[in-house]
Amino acid sequence: MRKERLLLDPESSTSKRVSVSEDPASFFPAASGMGNRILRLLSKGPNYPSAIARELKVYHQTVYYHVRKLERAGLLKKVGQRVVRGGTADLYTLAVDGFAVEFPVKPEGFSGLPSASRSPAFGGFLHEFISSGSLDGWIVVGSPEPHGPNRTQGRDGHYAIQVGFALGQFVRLPQSFPVKLDVDLKNEKLEKSNLIVVGGPRTNVVAAEINSHLPIRFYEEGFWGSIVDENGSKYSSDRDALIAKVKNPWNPDGYCIVAAGLSGSGTKAAIIGLTNFAERAFAGYKGGEYSVVLRGTDMDGDGKVDTVEVLHATGG
Fold first, then answer.
1. What is the pLDDT of residues 217-268, one digit of tens each?
2. Can you give the C-alpha Rg of the chain in angstroms?
3. Where in the chain is the domain with CATH 1.10.10.10?
4. Are 229 and 293 spatial neighbours (Cβ–Cβ below 8 Å)?
């Protein structure tokens, strides 16, 4: 019988989700040379069999054969599809972080267990922000006081709480307070750090300065009334949102993530997409810069955003 467990590293306070069985035969598809190469390639992010074949320089049929065996073994799974020349191409990712054979020995005790509900997509997207179990960077929210050229007030800083909960899957409690107001970050000259910016350019002056460096950005005309993608298409619903990860414009060795919407509901959609629906929002993410436009939806009819749909993505 197969189980899922956390593989813990006490030294770094990190963990991985692994599939565990007492029968090693269930993992045989991963033991073959090609099966192992496919899994290692997918550890970098989701991919299509055709792209895997090109990367590994093997025939497509070879990859499809091993992908089917790995999928049946529960070692990878489909996370999306796209239409290619009239056909359907399936997007695959790792089902777990690894696999192990378990023997009936007495387990070792461990205190301070991390969450068992880790999201590989969220962790992968924030890879550069997580260093040896600690947060490497700052969460930046708009000041609640009138500030910036339009003297606006940030009213979406409380959404950073959800980001903190999600980060808690991967990092230990920071020794210094990890949240900065946009005005304080600038006054303390911390722009060169890795930055997770919550709220758009209307209420967050750091987001306003990063905006011009985004491939998908907030459109300045009409008081930031829409999001415009690299093709010129605009998204103007109050529940439309953007999650963008780009190189830090003040430090090419760092990254900035902007999670914001055209309104408070839109920013909530961005945060929900980032934390609760990362597998959906980052299905095409393979590393580096990436931007995705989301639309918040109300599935339970209570008038509040509770899920998201992907409208457009680029990069990865």
1. 999 776 668 999 999 999 999 999 999 999 999 999 999 999 999 999 999 9
2. 21
3. 3-100
4. yes
Q: Could you tell me if 311 and 294 are in contact, meaning their C-beta atoms sit under 8 angstroms apart?
A: yes
Q: What count of Cα atoms within 13 Å lies in the side-chain half-sphere of residue 35?
A: 17
Q: Note the CATH number of domain 3-100.
A: 1.10.10.10
Report helix, strand or coil for 200: coil
Mean local confidence (pLDDT), 146-162: 86
| Range list for CATH 3.30.379.10 in the chain | 120-315
pTM of the entire predicted model: 0.65
For 33-37, 117-121, 130-134, 209-213, which range has the lowest pLDDT when averaged over its residues? 117-121
Q: Please state the three-class secondary structure of 136-158 as a single string.
A: CCEEEECCCCCECCCCECCCCHH
Confirm if 5 and 118 have CB atoms less than 8 A apart. no
Strand pairing report for 195-198 and 251-261: parallel
**Cα gap 316→312, rounded to integer Å:** 13
pLDDT category of residue 26 using cuts at 50, 70 and 90 = confident
Domain 120-315: give its CATH code.
3.30.379.10
Closest CA to 183 of 167, 161, 199: 199
How high is the pLDDT of residue 117?
53
- Whether 211 and 226 have beta carbons less than 8 Å apart is answered as no
Integer angstrom CA distances of residue 115 from 17, 104, 166, 196, 249: 10, 24, 10, 21, 33
From residue 61, give the alpha-carbon distance in Å to each of 29, 64, 69, 82: 16, 5, 13, 19
Q: DSSP for 1-25?
A: --EEEEEEETTTTEEEEEEEES-GG
DSSP annotation of 173: P
pLDDT number for residue 114: 46
| Residues 54-66 pLDDT 10s | 999 999 999 999 9
